[in-house]
Design a protein that fits this description.
Number of strands: 0
Helix content: 55-70%
Order of helices and strands: HHHHH
Mean pLDDT: 90
Number of helices: 5
Structural class: mainly alpha
Strand content: under 5%
Number of domains: 1
Shape: globular
Amino acid sequence: MNFIEAISSGLNNYFNFKDRASKSAFWYFLLFEFIYFFIAGFLLGMMGVSEDIFSIAALFLVLPIAVPGIAVTARRIHDFGKSGWMQCIFIPGFVIDEFLGTGYVIWLVTFIIFAIYCSQKGTNGKNKFGSKPRK
């Protein structure tokens, strides 16, 4: 699956939390999210908006892309036979970093562990979440 196919698949399956997603579909969609947020933040910064307006604008920019991101992550976790709810196990690591103010150290460690977790090999053939996704 290439970059454009992955983005299209992620957005077309906006609320699909029940199938499977390949590694490439997941990682390309994650790259798309990173680029999307980078460009949005850059443009907001270039407009010189205040911190309050930036926070509100960021919320509205996150909303349309957050749901398909969560959905593609759930489908990725389904690919190796686990419940999509397993992605919630990483939330405390991201939240704790904010409260402790560790300079994103805990966030980064949590993200690395999450990345390793999502990089597992998918189940060959069919599992309880469906057929093996195409590449």
